[in-house]
Amino acid sequence: MSISAQEVSFEITEDRVRCDNFDPLRQPFFGTTHLHTGLSFDASVRFVETTPRGAYRFAKGLETLTLPNPSGFQTVEVMIDRPTDWGMVTDHSEFFGEMGICKDFLGIDAPRTPIYGLPNDKRFLLGS
User: Fold this and answer.
1) Which residues fall within 8 angstroms of residue 87, CB to CB, at 6 or more apart?
2) Does 66 map to a domain?
């Protein structure tokens, strides 16, 4: 016995304006669920230099991303022709801070606040 989609669908009980791109058969969205930047130790030892901001800019179609060649070396530059719908940077927490410091990502990628390198940061951090 087969059941059609119409037989198991639900009843709409409220009045709502449909969005402009409503599709009763749904819509596919594209993105990535697993992207490491140079802040992850395992990516860093494979010479990944992408920053979290760079990954975001890549997902928006604004920047290239370097991927590994068949030997595992980061030599393949790619750029997408349109933005993705969503994306996730999934860096590991182990050595996260160390990778940021060693690669100077804090100077490149972090917002400019007293914690991240304004001239008064030592006074700020020491409480004087």
Assistant:
1) 31, 32, 35, 55, 56, 59
2) yes
Per the structure, how many domains does the chain have? Answer: 1
pLDDT tens, N- to C-terminus, the chain (128 residues): 555 555 556 677 788 888 888 887 888 889 988 888 888 888 877 778 888 888 899 999 999 988 888 887 888 999 999 999 988 988 888 877 777 777 666 555 444 444 444 444 444 444 44
- In three-state secondary structure terms, 92 is coil
Which two three-digit tokens encode residue 92?
């590991």
Task: Indicate whether 59 belongs to any domain.
Answer: yes
| 56 strand-pairing partners | none
Structure tokens at 42: 């395992």
Q: Is residue 109 part of a domain?
A: yes
- Establish if 62 belongs to a structural domain: yes
For the entire predicted model, the pTM comes to 0.60
Q: Which domain holds residue 118?
A: 30-126
For 32, residues 6+ apart whose C-beta sits below 8 A from its C-beta are 59, 84, 87, 88
Q: What are phi and psi of 45, to 5 degrees?
A: -70, -10
